[in-house]
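New to this. Help decode the following:
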Amino acid sequence: MWRLGRLVLALLLLSLVGSPVAAATPEGQSTQRWGLPPVWGGCERFLADAGKVPTAQCGTVAVPFDYNDPDGELAQLAVIKVPASGDRIGVLIVNPGGPGASAVDTVAGMGAALAGTELLERFDLVGVDPRGVGHSTPQLRCRTDEEFDAYRREPLADYSPAGVAHIESVYADLVRRCTERMGAAFLSGVGTATAAIDLDVVRAALGEHQLNYLGFSYGTQLGAAYAARYPDRVRAMVLDGAVDPTLDPVAARIRQLNGFQRAFDAYAADCAKAADCPLGTDPSQFVARYRQLVDPLVTRPAYTSDPRGLSYSDAITGTVNALYSPRYWPYLTSGLLGLRDGTDAVDLLLLADDYYRRDRSGHYKNQHDALMAIRCVDAPYPPDPAVWVEADRQVRQAAPFLAHGAFTGFAPRDLCSMWPVPPTSAPQPATSPGPGKVVVVSVTRDPATPYEAGVELARQMGASLITFDGAQHTVVFNGDACVDTAVVNFLIDSVVPPHGLRC
């Protein structure tokens, strides 16, 4: 439920707010070890292209692994600030979602893209990498680059009893490596509940009585958790690409996959306008034609100009990545044509690389390891295999383009059902931090966070809803004047968008 790397361009009472000597813990205990204001410096330590945002300042804020053990080990949260250039209102903290995407990288991009705008005149634009994510340390890494490549070569498509046993052994091995490399103490603290506390520690370290917040995708979940815990600390909050916090992991996954099926249907219909569409021109055959192209990869990867070839897993991942936005549909068509014609299917491999954040040198960012660890502690995952058999049946109904083979009556358990530490959150409705404080933005044909989730989140939080008619994941500050004007007016002047605003 996230869009990694796709933004043009996610937070305790502290009585000594911004004190350079001491801050208060969530329990009111003073400490000099963590929660102190950042020592600002250049951003070269985080960003290779720091010069693109010359006014940006970077630093870190220390937080304990475990707030119940404030004298224990500390994590360092990476923080970037692009200072307001004019009559300053306060801070606007941005989280790009994932979970696992770097807010530092996102704010650097937004700072460059929005330079000279009234938004950056009135707000310090701030990004905080949650613990384990991006430039924060320790960085959450469960796999080496080589191990990640090997994981992607696994088809994980055989749902016979022996096949399911193999899939679960692959998952169990990944869980074991993650536990050994990061430690249970660290993994216990990476969930959204702790991230909301961390965000409030950062707010205090920045010397702010209240914060303004812009969250995309999973960032809406973090924002809602913060608003529930610290309603008086919220001045204005914009949540774009909403996650419905009442859904359990299975229900949320089914809703999301149904959104991707709708996106696949829209892509296929658009592709069929061309006589050479690899899915043909008969809508009743789009899914069957797609499966005919990708199913053979279960046993034999396809040729690509990259020596890795295209695995079954990467073909599926590349397809899903392309469905986030119509601007990527041409690359999906190119890859599928390569499969059909036995030529170069490298565009599907590159789409999978983009999704997994693998660069040309073969190095991965840690976004997917962080995503895995965060989602595994954010909700209970039942260990009963029968639950996952039923979930598999529902998934095949929701997204037939992703279903491999016939329903067998067997299904692997989700990796998170094997996680070594208990969940720290559970599904529950969001709450309102107060009237006029929250705006939710939802895209009608968003494949990853379907429109209905935004409607539900707005209802739960008593928030205004902006509807954007489109087929992409998130929209704020992606060039739509209707949405952006309403958001900027809300953030700067607290002007609530007109009821029923549709852009």
Residues 57 and 81 are 5 Å apart (CA to CA). The chain has three domains: 50-139+188-247+429-493, 145-180+368-418, 249-356. Residues 1-31 have pLDDT under 50 and may be disordered.
